[in-house]
Design a protein that fits this description.
binds zinc ion, Rubrerythrin, domain 2, elongated, alpha+beta, three-stranded antiparallel beta sheet
Length: 71
């Protein structure tokens, strides 16, 4: 499932873990969060969140090249 990050504080919403603080059950995708859900860290609205997909791919690629570098 897709990770979303808060643009204001850098908090990650991971559907796999949900959001205990706001009583969001594990396995709840970001688009199934209640409309009034806010960032548990800084109270930003869902509008402030962006999807992390593309960046994660970048991170993976970065990790791989880093491992190669370390070898
Ligand atoms: Zn936030």
């Amino acid at each position: 499932m897709d990770l979303y990050a808060c643009d204001l504080c850098g908090y990650y919403y991971d559907p796999e873990y949900g959001d205990e603080e706001n009583h969001i059950q594990r396995g709840t995708p970001f688009d199934k969060l209640p409309p009034d859900w806010v960032c548990p860290e800084c109270d930003a609205s869902k509008d402030e969140f962006y999807k992390l997909d593309d960046e994660l791919d970048t991170f993976d690629a970065y990790d791989l090249s880093l491992e190669e570098y370390l070898d």
